[in-house]
Amino acid sequence: MPQNKRFTVDEIDFIKNNYSLMSVEALARQLDRTPKGVRGKIERLGLKLSEIPRNIPYSWSTEDLQILKNNYTLPDYKINELLPKFSLAQITRKRLELGLRKHTYEPYIQSSYYQTFRDGKRVWIHKEVAEQKIGRKLSECEVVHHVNGVKLDNNPNNLFVCSDKQHHGLVHNSLAQTAFELVKQGVIKFNHSTGKYYSE
Q1: Phi, psi of 132, rounded to the nearest 5 degrees
Q2: DSSP β-bridge partners for residue 121
Q3: 161 near 174, Cβ under 8 Å?
Q4: Is the pTM of this model over 0.70?
Q5: Is 51 exposed, middle or buried (0-12, 13-18, 19+ CB in 10 A)?
Q6: pLDDT in tens, 120-179
Q7: For residue 107, what pLDDT is reported?
Q8: Contacts of residue 127, Cβ cutoff 8 Å, sequence gap at least 6
Q9: Is residue 52 over pLDDT 50?
Q10: Shortest CA distance to 128 belongs to which of 115, 140, 110?
Q11: Which intervals hold domain HNH nuclease (predicted)?
């Protein structure tokens, strides 16, 4: 479990999207971090912790269960809006206990990438496609590079798995070096009026 490691952009986005729906403990489990570290990050981001009581006994009424059964295909955070007395973790747990498993949602764009939700968990499409391509899960350090620079193009041939952020930086540097070589060859030109490179 990371202790002093800096929070990634993805982790910060996850906290911002879920801090009002999940307990600090649930966020910590999801991010594989300590509750103390997550609580501190929430405070540093200036976010107000949810006032939903997390540690009191709870029970599901017949009406609550019916609402869950009628709406289980919605994202769990949407179900939480219909059942605000339960935490997001409680809703997900009860839904899975009842065998109410949902389909993948239509992907949407966040932070310039396609993502979706599946069984209450966020899934980055480009990472999932890359994992299918290499036949295993990505490690925590690995970064998925989009070859053509288009983050929404998740064709497997457009994805390359870098060993870490430094490797990813080297890949981008190689592109810059190649571009400058093409400038020297006259393939890419520079417009001094617009301040932009272009190709004929």
Answers
A1: -65, -35
A2: 118
A3: no
A4: no
A5: exposed
A6: 567 778 888 899 899 998 999 999 999 998 888 888 999 999 999 999 999 999 999 999
A7: 53
A8: 138, 144
A9: no
A10: 115
A11: 124-168
